């Protein structure tokens, strides 16, 4: 799933390539992605793109007082085409959900596609006058890169949960998902199952500092990348996430995994849990 660094990079890519362009035809290949109908998506046609922004893990472009907002969910992505097909896509065929044709000031006619891989379709698109009309944006907590250390400490004090759960709770803190929470906790040498109540003031400072460092490093690595290369850049920077069975790059121990019904997370026992192996939920064992 695209998280704060990748969505920030996609917003930057659109600011570089789409600002000033006029929106042309919009092809909707999957009606299910549209979560709003007033104003209709066709109201964006003929309007100049004036902004591109990130709201947590939501991506938005502004045109003529309207916002096209998308949440890419687990399998979604934005793909840019300098020479897109002029033929309307066939509904329900392939990963394409929505295509936006553009006319640039230089006379070019690119397009960007919102696509979604897999069979579980969760990609969502809204057309709104104010981003706060999108329920997921209205519920967002402070952005992970904007929250101050005192604010962060106060948020954790109000949330009684495991650290992994707290970091991915978008109503608590916006922008971090499964992958970067794994990386933050590994870098900070904190167990995913440690609780917010167990943190000392020093641990809170460490977690806040590490969170910013990991995210800012990922943003820096993603800046300037072509939209098509961002996924690969994300994978290449991971130390434990999605690296089950591989050696930890810090200590050499084997990276372990805890799995649930539809998700999993990774950690290093030596770096994070004092050598203790956390029980894999697929085996229905208790974690003490």
Automatic annotation (TrEMBL):
Enzyme Commission code: 3.2.2.23, 4.2.99.18
UniProt keyword list: DNA damage, DNA repair, DNA-binding, Glycosidase, Hydrolase, Lyase, Metal-binding, Multifunctional enzyme, Zinc, Zinc-finger
UniProt superkingdom: Bacteria
Pfam families linked to this entry: Fapy_DNA_glyco (PF01149), H2TH (PF06831), zf-FPG_IleRS (PF06827)
The keyword Cell inner membrane is annotated on this UniProt entry: no
Cofactor(s) required for function per UniProt: Zn(2+)
PANTHER family attached to this UniProt entry: FORMAMIDOPYRIMIDINE-DNA GLYCOSYLASE
Family membership: Belongs to the FPG family.
Entry protein name: Formamidopyrimidine-DNA glycosylase
Organism encoding this protein: Rhodococcoides corynebacterioides
């Amino acid at each position: 799933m695209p998280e704060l660094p990748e969505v920030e990079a996609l917003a930057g890519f659109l600011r570089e390539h789409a600002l000033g362009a006029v929106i042309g035809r919009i092809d909707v290949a999957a009606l299910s992605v549209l979560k709003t109908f007033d104003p209709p998506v066709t109201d964006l046609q003929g309007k100049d793109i004036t902004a591109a922004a990130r709201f947590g893990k939501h991506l938005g472009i502004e045109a003529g007082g309207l916002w096209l907002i998308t949440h890419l969910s687990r399998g979604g992505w934005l793909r840019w085409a300098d020479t897109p097909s002029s033929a309307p896509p066939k509904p329900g065929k392939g990963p394409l959900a929505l295509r936006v044709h553009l006319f640039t000031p230089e006379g070019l006619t690119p397009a960007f596609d919102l696509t979604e891989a897999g069979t579980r379709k969760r990609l969502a698109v809204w057309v709104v006058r104010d981003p706060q009309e999108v329920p997921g944006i209205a519920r967002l907590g402070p952005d992970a890169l904007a929250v101050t250390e005192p604010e962060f400490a106060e948020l954790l004090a109000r949330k009684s949960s495991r650290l992994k759960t707290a970091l991915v709770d978008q109503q608590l803190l916006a922008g971090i998902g499964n992958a970067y929470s794994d990386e933050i906790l590994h870098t900070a040498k904190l167990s995913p199952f440690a609780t917010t109540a167990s943190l000392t003031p020093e641990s809170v400072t460490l977690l806040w500092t590490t969170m910013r460092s990991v995210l800012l490093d990922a943003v820096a690595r993603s800046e300037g990348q072509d939209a098509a290369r961002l996924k690969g850049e994300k994978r290449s920077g991971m130390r434990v996430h999605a690296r089950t069975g591989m050696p930890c790059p810090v200590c050499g121990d084997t990276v372990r995994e805890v799995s649930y019904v539809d998700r999993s997370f990774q950690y290093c026992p030596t770096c994070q849990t004092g050598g203790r192996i956390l029980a894999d939920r697929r085996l229905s064992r208790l974690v003490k």
